[in-house]
Write a structure and sequence with these properties.
The chain is an alpha+beta fold and about 280 residues long. About 20% of the residues lie in helices and about 30% in strands. It has 5 helices and 17 strands. Strands 2, 4, 5, 6, 9, 11 and 12 form a 7-stranded antiparallel beta sheet that branches. Strands 3, 7, 8 and 14 form a 4-stranded antiparallel beta sheet that branches. The chain has a 3-stranded antiparallel beta sheet with strand order 1-10-13, with no helix packed on it. Helix 3 runs parallel beside helix 5. The radius of gyration is 19 Å and the shape is globular.
């Protein structure tokens, strides 16, 4: 699993009581399963450190996303052998690999108990099409979070890797809101990349292919919301673990932004960008 990340816009900042000193449970949906995994956390757009005092993962058994976890699967992550970690501004961190039985096509809860961190300048993915849960205090290991504030954002999480042999590989879907999941069911995991992951998994010749969705709503090759496509292609495609293929569905917002004008310069620049994407992917 993975997502495209950006600087949080003011309207997408965490609600009160904020992240600092509180618990935030986020739900992601696996494509490929495995017996050992690690989680990638990012503060790449932050301007101050992010302290994570405790991080837990557990299976989320709900068909539709909820705050409930299976307590038998609750596992604390470590960072260089320590229970806590502070991510410096502009940096990211991987957890230590941990034994964990993650089935394919399954909801995984990632629960962070935050220490000191900013509530104004945060790295996030603003439109995950599922609910996350914010609750005051340290409840990282709680089976459920009654009374939690529901938030449709992912903060500071970027990837979940599973250990697999060389027969496995990832396809990254790189695009805008169409890829990110606009129009899909909240908590239903029915974005088109989710449908693709199910089709690949249930077809024997492609069962070892995972899907990483790095769509960002409102994104464009040369601008839009979040980092421009030409600036984020390396991080959001080439740098993903195990990537072997990419589907580029980016440029709709560039064309739409032209508002019907005959724009030869835009067309020429888009073609050049697609060629650059192709050259970089083939070189990788």
């Amino acid at each position: 699993w993975g997502c495209g990340i950006q600087l949080t816009e003011p309207r997408n900042l965490p609600p009160a009581p904020g992240l600092a000193g509180n618990t935030f449970r986020q739900i992601v949906h696996s494509s490929t399963g495995g017996k050992e995994l690690r989680v990638h956390f990012s503060n790449i757009f932050g301007e101050s450190p992010v302290e994570m005092k405790s991080v837990h993962i557990a299976l989320n058994p709900s068909v539709m996303v909820s705050s409930t976890i299976d307590p038998a699967t609750d596992t604390a992550l470590k960072f260089g052998g320590a229970d806590s970690v502070t991510i410096p501004a502009g940096k990211d961190v991987w957890s230590d690999p941990v034994a964990f039985d993650l089935p394919p096509l399954t909801n995984l809860a990632i629960t962070i108990y935050y220490g000191q961190c900013s509530s104004n300048i945060i790295t996030d993915h603003p439109s995950p099409r599922c609910k996350s849960y914010l609750l005051a205090g340290n409840t990282a290991a709680s089976p459920n979070l009654p009374g939690a504030i529901k938030v449709q954002h992912w903060y500071n999480i970027e990837d979940v890797d599973v250990m697999a042999d060389d027969s496995y590989g990832a396809v990254v879907t790189f695009g805008d809101s169409i890829t990110d999941g606009r129009g899909s069911t909240i908590g239903g995991n029915n974005r088109w990349p989710d449908d693709l992951a199910r089709r690949l998994h249930t077809n024997a010749p492609t069962a070892h292919a995972s899907v990483i969705n790095t769509g960002i709503g409102g994104n464009a090759i040369f601008g839009g919301l979040g980092p421009a496509g030409i600036k984020r292609f390396d991080r959001d495609v080439l740098d993903k673990s195990g990537v072997k293929w990419v589907i580029v569905f980016e440029g709709v917002n560039d064309i739409g932004g032209a508002r019907g004008r005959r724009n030869v310069t835009l067309a020429t620049n888009m073609i050049a960008a697609y060629k650059k994407f192709t050259e970089k992917a083939h070189a990788k």
